[in-house]
Write a structure and sequence with these properties.
This protein is α+β, with helices and mostly antiparallel strands and about 160 residues long. About 30% of the residues lie in helices and about 20% in strands. The strands form 2 sheets. Strands 3-5-6-4-7-8 form a 6-stranded mixed sheet, with helices on both faces. A two-stranded antiparallel ribbon has the order 1-2. A hairpin with a 2-residue loop joins β1 and β2. The longest helix has 14 residues.
Length: about 160
Amino acid sequence: MSDHGDHAVAEHAPTGGDTPTRSSGVNEPQINVDHFYHRPVFHVVGLLTENSEIPVISKDLASAGVDVTAVEILCGEEGARILDEHGRYHGLRGRIVRAFQRLGYDEITLEIYDEALRKGDLLLRVPAPPAQRRRVAELLQHHHVHDVGYFAPGTFEQFPILDAD
């Protein structure tokens, strides 16, 4: 990761190696931008283990009509801090929001995503209107994104694992 202004910007290695390369394209996802969400409503979310998939996922999302610049990716410890499972880093409001979420089904989702970020997975948040959620979820799953779900107002829809073709 490197500092870029007020935000941490992740660097990724397109070849899957350990040597990071900075992305230079303009129509790329936002990486580790500190947006605290109560719930990312109208977003398909999922985890990706292999960051070398990001360029091809971005290309396919753009082909599907998704504004790739609105896609957000969280990664590493900084991503876990932004997700903020317990609301520690986003003031009193953040702590209250997360406390109420821990009383419901959001608790498990937050735990899964926090643990995955700390283990090195990437958390993708892709904006999708309700009518497009299944198409976007399937596209992500074809690129090995797992634990895919959709946040709608007051609900979370978990997508089943696709059969390997």
